[in-house]
Amino acid sequence: MGGTMRSLEQVLKALRPEFARLRTVLNRVESAVEALSGLLSQDSAGGRRLGYGRRGRRMPLAAGKKIAAPRKAHWAKQGHRMRRLREQCGFNQREVDRRTDRIAQQKNNKALHVSRTYLRDIERGTSVPSMDKLKALALVYEQDHEELVKPYHKDLLKLYGAF
Asked: Which of 4, 64, 65, 141 has minimal Cβ neighbours within 10 Å of its Cβ?
């Protein structure tokens, strides 16, 4: 037993310089990664690290937070129109969620349900609603289905062909 302990101690003693060298290399790599991430996320004016906050706005990044790029709002104009329609009807997003869920249950078609998060993406302009979602929203907003389809006409043609 004593011989085994001595041989382990000798092996550890021989490996200590190698561990120290690896620790030094690891510290250098970590420093380089921090420097690069700092350069990538610096504000040109203030030199502070920035990230994307709520609503896609650039704002100072809390320590340890990752930076995520905002989704592009390709359909922002159409999204704003959808939001105005919802607000004119006096509904919040949760109420639209409930009403479209009720419609989906009545028609036995889950594709008619528009969740709050999906409605948010539609209104922000980061998602194009499907034909089913537009039909459900038309029923909720008491609008003609064709009026809701018009702003998305070109994009829906690409997705679904002639409809």
From this structure: 64
